[in-house]
Design a protein that fits this description.
The chain starts with a strand and ends in a 12-residue tail after the last helix. By secondary structure, it is an alpha/beta fold. The longest helix is centred in the middle third of the chain and has 17 residues. It has a five-stranded parallel sheet, with helices on both faces. The protein has one domain: P-loop containing nucleotide triphosphate hydrolases (Rossmann fold, 3-Layer(aba) Sandwich). It has seven helices and five strands.
Amino acid sequence: MPANAIILTGPSGVGKSTIGRRLQQVLPGPWLLYEVDQCSPPIPPGSLTEQQIVAANIGAARAWADTGIPVIVEIALLGEEDLQIARSGLHGHHVFVVVLDCTRIVLEAHLAARGVAGPPPSHALPFYQRTAGRWPTGADLQLCVDGLTPDQAAARIAQAALPSGGTTSSARP
């Protein structure tokens, strides 16, 4: 069954937001791009667990999916527990999870292109090092973006998530 909720996860700087915007252009009909970094309030360190934050963000995205508008959720899911929270939070929807990854060299190029690389390193490089190997293995698609344009990555995701030729199962308002 075609997806009506696509989750893009991976390290900061891999291109989740850019690829999400390209997906909005290639997928049929309107899709909401729910960018967690843009939608979450500042959270004081230690006030919530990572799992509470994931659950809250997935819950907000689910509210949109429940209206019949398909969603692309751009979020960092660290490991199988976060993936399970995300899938459970979107229970009843057709969820397609994509882990985007790249080499450190490509990550540094992405960060430099958006002006956040350089000494001292941005938060993204230490995050990349800490999270290497922690991305969910239970994803529907693992895609290394090395050598791919955002358009090529979006096309591969769209083909995998909507194998029926580009129609979603969600009702349109």
